[in-house]
Structure prediction request, 159 residues.
Amino acid sequence: MTDRHVFDLTVNGVPRRVEAEPDMPLLYVLRDLMGERETRFGCGDGLCGACTVIVDGRAAEACDLPVSAVAGPVETAASLTGPAGDHPILDALLSRNAGQCGYCLSGIAMRAKAFLEVTPGASRAEIARALDRNLCRCGAHNRILDALEQAAAQMEGTA
Ligand code: FES
Ligand code: FES
Prediction:
């Protein structure tokens, strides 16, 4: 059994200290040790994108990232809502009923956020390409893209 170590992470702006084996995936740290259940387990193998979070400004598959390799602040889908209101991505996904079961949406929202923050106003085709690694098993891709196009325009200030 591997030794446990103490890790100091910042999750959604809040400092969090956990004791974990260094090779424990960030996904398990978030869900099982921190109770951050909004990040979803899909394939567990870096293939479906359900577990996507943002680490230091970049999208990352949390199931495939050992906690010891986390370098920088972590953002999960819980960061999309707060006292100041919902982020345009969450607002658009909800107001357009973009999901069906919704299981894929937290990962899609985080990959879209990482992408649109550096590419505001991206086209539908660019957004679709950026989401290439995120599967939606319900086939709700078109509604999701409709919502993300709306969010992109809002983030660019052209909506
Ligand atoms: S659960 Fe992480 S990529 Fe599928
Ligand atoms: S809405 Fe069900 S997996 Fe995407």
